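Researcher: Dear colleague, please comment on this protein.
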Amino acid sequence: MTKILSGIGSLSQLSDIRAAFDAKTVMLVTGKASYAASGAKSIVDAALQDDNVVQFSDFDVNPKIEDAERGVAIAKEAGVDLIVGVGGGSVMDMAKLIKAFYTAPEKSKELAKGELAMTDPGIPMVLVPTTAGSGSEATHFAVVYIGLDKYSLASQLLLPDGVILDGSLIASASPYQMACNGLDALAQAIESAWAAGSTEESRAYSFRAVSLCAKYLKDVLAPGAGEDALQGMMEASNLAGKAINISKTTAAHAWSYAITSHHGVPHGHAVWLTLPRIFEMHATASADVVTDPRGMEHFTAIMARLMDIWGITSPADSAAHLKAYLTEINVESDMAAIGADTAEKRAFLSKQVNMQRMSNNPVGLTQTHMDQIFNL
């Protein structure tokens, strides 16, 4: 079971975690400039005051399999007995990949493709997010690229043994970065709540995360954001990660990857270019289009809870309400403004859908729905 340390300044307790694992040699997986900019470097340097630390940061923001293999080689040469990942989603993915490939680096491609089961190297892993968005520290997934092809590894071995949630580490992000990260956490929480794969446990995480975002997301974007807002958003992100770890995501995420890939829009922003209209379609859905096997009553109760938390009084006004919120936090809600400025471009995006995530959507979206979502 993952042990969580949570609170402003909690990263300073990394030395205690190291001692608890009786770790002699630590592999520190970090970002490049972000590691120092977040304030993590100075805290970690003070907590791990010896030479038995090997740092690995020479990898792409989209983790490549050859980078992970190189990380494994460095870890093996150093004889590490603790992996610590400090950074955003890509950094935490890399820490997970090093653990995943450690026992059989020569079989990394087979492991990445799910053709070979992972074996536990017996090396504990601690993850320290420096962004409040991906929730990767709470999931059993990791992304890796083989050439241009993206693969998602899934194994309970990828869940960390320890997590440190220190809200002070997100304070250096720009307002737009913070907004994109927070919107990612919020989208994950909303989508997880209504997902066909949701459970009572995942929905509890989801609703708590949505509530924290409703309370703190605006506040954390203001200059000199207070500690409560910083820590609140860090915990919201973690809860959203716990939720999707069980339920997975749905339609808005199914389209977001193409929007990011073709128009360079950060992931959290990309999700929200479709989510307001998808939310409204769910809020106004009739029983004949609800595909969740638990039925209309179950689905209606979830939508009512989400609308109540977010202060939406009319289902038919859901999209307008959510788009107005995006305007308030200075995030563009119009696809034309991000480059999808013709019907042809938007029609292309509408067809670039991840069907695995779409199949988890609780409402069957027809071509008419898709045309409305993409303003066709």
In short: The beta strands are 3-6, 26-30, 53-56, 82-87, 125-129, 141-146, 149-154, 162-165. The chain has two domains: 3-169, 173-373. The chain has a mean pLDDT of 95.
